[in-house]
Automatic annotation (TrEMBL):
Keywords annotated in UniProt: Iron, Metal-binding, Oxidoreductase
Biased composition (Pro residues): 1-11
Superkingdom: Eukaryota
A GO molecular-function descriptor: metal ion binding
GO biological process: gibberellin metabolic process
Protein name: GA C20oxidase2
Cofactor(s) the protein requires to work: L-ascorbate
Family: Belongs to the iron/ascorbate-dependent oxidoreductase family.
Chain intervals for the UniProt region annotation (Disordered): 1-29
Domain Fe2OG dioxygenase: start-end pairs: 229-329
Length: 394
């Protein structure tokens, strides 16, 4: 059955675009980005010009689905040696080709996953003024954004997001505290759901790290230990129905700079991956989650596994929700591959903070980001001296 679009809040104006709260949602405006940014997309009878994407980015997907395995991660626990070997081979083939696979047999509770998706629906259906109580402060990770200019693109995506950070290095439940302190005590139950969901995502990400170790044939425990004290990002995405879906995108083409993304889709679908010049759709698999390699793990694998372009499309009739958990290293951890995979080195040592500083300064999130980042980290002597002089004078 086709889901009806949500009923829009009655107090909202019907004008297309209202004054901006933050053109990027992160305090960084992309070159040429339109500054206008806050509107209720559910009320738009047609697409405002800032949301119209170039044909090169918004061209239709291939009819062929992405060829990606659904890997049973339960084999890491049940002692099935043959199943484990097969799973490692499937992951190795997918990650060397396009960096995407799906996982089943995980321990994430189905009821918790449903509650997290339902929580996203509840939040995004709030009146805009109430959602904006959680508006993202420039320069921070956490907060709500609506029709914001992605810092890596000059066009606006047809979506709303709510992002918040997660770590478990202390006793405080950081996600639950964020919801209560930002949105008020009425949102404490929602905060507890996302706190538990992030904890489950952290454990699943470490399980996947074990599988990646096996698939690469590197030292056991290297990646799991590397991410044991991770600082991750959780993002709830909402894509409203769109009157002209062929002219816009929910999320523009990009590569994730993070290490690993775990995506829970609802039944609608909209994720597409660029392979050999064609956009290939990824249909949701009940009970499974989509995994993709990001730039940071590409460096941790010494370039053996790929971080590929992907995007999200929208449709005319159905709203879509997804939950993305981005696994990131602790900010000061040095990113380097395990010794058995480190020869010859493809990328220099760096920290997650270094990479974030580069991507935000240079608006990079594409297939050449790591190469450009390497040149930025290790400029020729003359260029380094010139850069130092400029920075000293500024």
């Amino acid at each position: 059955m086709v889901a009806e679009p949500p009923t829009p809040p009655q107090h909202q104006p019907t004008s297309a675009v209202t004054p901006p709260m933050d053109s990027t949602g992160s305090g960084i405006a992309a070159p040429g980005a339109t500054a206008a940014a806050v509107c209720d997309l559910r009320l738009e009878p047609k697409i405002p010009e800032p949301f119209v994407w170039p044909n090169a980015d918004a061209r239709p997907a291939s009819a062929a689905e992405l060829d990606m395995p659904v890997v049973d991660v339960g084999v890491l626990l049940n002692g099935d040696a043959e199943g484990l070997r097969r799973a490692a081979e499937q992951v190795a083939a997918a990650c060397a080709t396009h960096g995407f696979f799906q996982v089943s047999g995980h321990s994430v509770d189905a009821a918790l996953a449903r509650a997290a998706l339902d929580g996203a629906s509840d939040f995004f259906r709030l009146p805009l003024a109430e959602k904006r109580r959680a508006r993202r402060v420039p320069g921070t990770v956490s907060g709500y954004t609506s029709a914001h200019a992605d810092r890596f693109a000059s066009k606006l995506p047809w979506k709303e997001t709510l992002s918040f950070g997660f770590h478990d290095r202390g006793a405080a439940p950081v996600v639950a505290d964020y919801f209560s302190s930002t949105l008020g005590p009425d949102f404490a139950p929602m905060g507890r759901v996302y706190q538990k969901y992030c904890e489950e995502m952290k454990e699943l990400s470490l399980t996947i790290m074990e599988l990646l170790e096996l698939s690469l044939g590197v030292e056991r425990g290297y990646y799991r230990e590397f991410f044991a004290d991770s600082s991750s990002i959780m993002r709830c995405n909402y894509y409203p129905p769109c009157p002209e879906p062929e002219r816009t995108l929910g999320t523009g083409p990009h590569c994730d700079p993070t290490a690993l993304t775990i995506l829970l889709q609802d039944h609608v679908g909209g994720l597409e991956v660029l392979v050999d010049g064609d956009w290939r759709p990824v249909s949701p698999v009940p009970g499974a989650m989509v995994i993709n390699i990001g730039d940071t793990f590409m460096a941790l694998s010494n370039g053996r596994y790929r971080s590929c372009l992907h995007r999200a499309v929208v449709n005319r009739r159905q709203e879509r929700r997804s939950l993305a958990f981005f696994l990131c290293p602790r900010e000061d951890r040095v990113v380097r591959p395990p010794p058995s995979a480190a020869t010859p080195r493809q990328y220099p040592d760096f920290t997650w903070a270094d990479l974030m500083r580069f991507t935000q300064r240079h608006y990079r999130a594409d297939t050449r980001t790591l190469d450009a980042f390497t040149r930025w980290l290790t400029p020729p002597p003359d260029a380094a001296a010139a850069t130092a002089q400029v920075e000293a004078a500024s």
